């Protein structure tokens, strides 16, 4: 980030009681002169900057079709601090044949990110889905280890030094598979047993010692998710306990839909706390809101979607282990929800922060307000801390950070330096 932008954000963080820098979303300051507007003015700061001022990363999943659309590309460049490769780094995209790698699409995304100073996130090295058609007839118990290690080594090395983080393993937990360890019965598990998880993380760490290595999972937020939360926690605790290089949990966060009334804020918050206690960071890695059971009228539907974002982020951002919020797409023009959870009335789905014309929606306001509330809180406590802290570390001109040691500051002291995840080492990237 250039110095002028950084000092601007610093002054923004240092001046919470002046006129709000953005008029989007509800303000916690009682001095806010006007009620929040549903459509923020175009001068409102983008989500990436609001996130950064609060000590988070904001980003979105994108694919090559999207970045070829000038309007979408501009919106991503404006709003995001990071992009995730939505499909371009999955096996099906990278492996046209058993003996060939095709990095064309992944490299297009990396170049797009680089040209705009965005961090780049890899998704995903090991998953039971999005496998190429040759996979099942070619990979077997005899050669699976060789395929896994070769794939991870080749792909992670290709992007080494450029990757913010990798989803090393995706969706490995599934209590419904009926195993005592809660693992999903995937081809990798069948061919290699549970050791495929160790193999994946150690191989990724050897190929890029600087990337944040994540385990990514879905379906952790509802009352009915308790067994999955327990199994996920047991898996992470086991991996960490045996010194495996897993640094973060990615929580997909595909919210909304018919099950959402069972959102279990308390159970989810306790889960985040337990994950943090393992020394892991947390990324909300694929947030979007299914609107297939919400009213047809656009304004009512947009408000309902925004309320789900608000409730979700109220829990997520309250936990100090959470470092990033990534939506699964940015605009309703490009969203997997259109096919994975379409509406029965045939209306276009509206799950993301921007509409199909790239205009900000109430969902955008809800995300902005969630970051904004964190900034206000952090700044208020930093300002009051000046009375009790050493002025050398808290005086004017010092950057005020919402999370000075990478989000660990609210943790019990015993967890701060012991088993510090690799994320505690200085990151090289712009937003790390
Ligand atoms: C989805 C993509 O968004 C779709 O375009 C693709 O057809 C299928 O995969 N969890 C994940 C993501 O980890 O990889 C999935 O992405 C969405 C659910």
| Overall pLDDT metric | 84
Strand count, sense and barrel status of the largest sheet are: 8 strands, parallel, barrel
| Largest sheet, spatial ordering of strands | 1-2-3-4-5-6-8-9
Instruction: List the ligand species.
Output: (3S,4R)-3-hydroxy-2-oxopiperidin-4-yl beta-D-xylopyranoside
Number of helices: 17
Count of extended strands:
9
Structural class category: alpha/beta
Helix content: 25-40%
How far is the N terminus from the C terminus? 11 Å
Uncertain regions spanning at least 5 consecutive residues: 1-42, 387-432
Give the overall form: globular
Structural write-up:
The structure is a single chain. This protein is an alpha/beta fold. It contains 17 helices and 9 strands. The longest helix is centred in the last third of the chain and has 24 residues, at 362-385. The protein starts with a helix and ends in a 16-residue tail after the last helix. The structure holds (3S,4R)-3-hydroxy-2-oxopiperidin-4-yl beta-D-xylopyranoside. Residues 86-87, 170, 218, 252, 286, 336 line the site of (3S,4R)-3-hydroxy-2-oxopiperidin-4-yl beta-D-xylopyranoside.
């Amino acid at each position: 980030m250039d110095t002028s932008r950084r000092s601007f954000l610093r002054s923004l963080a240092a001046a919470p009681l002046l006129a709000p820098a953005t008029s989007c979303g509800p303000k916690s300051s009682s001095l806010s002169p006007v009620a929040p507007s549903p459509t923020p003015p175009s001068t409102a700061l983008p989500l990436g900057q609001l996130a950064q001022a609060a000590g988070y990363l904001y980003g979105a999943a994108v694919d090559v079709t999207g970045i070829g659309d000038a309007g979408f590309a501009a919106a991503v460049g404006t709003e995001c601090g990071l992009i995730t490769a939505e499909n371009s780094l999955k096996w099906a995209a990278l492996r046209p044949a058993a003996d060939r790698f095709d990095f064309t699409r992944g490299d297009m995304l990396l170049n797009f990110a680089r040209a705009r100073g965005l961090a780049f996130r890899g998704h995903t090295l090991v998953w039971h889905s999005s496998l190429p058609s040759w996979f099942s007839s070619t990979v077997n118990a005899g050669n699976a280890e060789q395929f896994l290690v070769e794939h991870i080594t080749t792909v992670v090395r290709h992007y080494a030094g450029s990757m913010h983080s990798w989803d090393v393993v995706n969706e490995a937990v599934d209590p419904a598979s009926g195993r005592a360890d809660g693992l999903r019965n995937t081809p990798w598990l069948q061919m290699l047993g549970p050791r495929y998880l160790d193999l994946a993380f150690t191989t990724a760490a050897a190929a890029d010692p600087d990337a944040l290595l994540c385990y990514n999972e879905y379906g952790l937020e509802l009352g009915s998710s308790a067994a999955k939360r327990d199994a996920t926690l047991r898996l992470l605790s086991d991996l960490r306990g045996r010194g495996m290089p897993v640094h973060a949990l990615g929580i997909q966060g595909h919210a909304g839909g018919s099950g959402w009334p069972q959102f279990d804020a308390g159970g989810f918050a306790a889960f985040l706390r337990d994950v943090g206690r393992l020394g892991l960071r947390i990324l909300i890695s694929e947030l979007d809101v299914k609107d297939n059971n919400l009213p047809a009228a656009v304004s009512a539907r947009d408000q309902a979607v925004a309320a789900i974002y608000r409730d979700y982020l109220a829990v997520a951002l309250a936990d100090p282990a959470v470092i990033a919020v990534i939506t699964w797409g940015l605009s309703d023009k490009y969203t997997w929800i259109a096919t994975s959870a379409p509406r029965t009335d045939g209306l276009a789905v509206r799950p993301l922060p921007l509409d199909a014309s790239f205009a900000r929606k109430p969902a955008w306001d809800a995300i902005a307000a969630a970051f904004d509330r964190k900034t206000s809180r952090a700044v208020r406590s930093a300002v009051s801390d000046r009375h009790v802290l050493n002025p050398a570390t808290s005086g004017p001109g010092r950057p005020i950070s919402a999370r000075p040691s990478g989000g660990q500051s609210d943790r019990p002291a015993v967890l701060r330096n012991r088993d510090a995840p690799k994320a505690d080492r200085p990151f090289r990237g712009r937003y790390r």
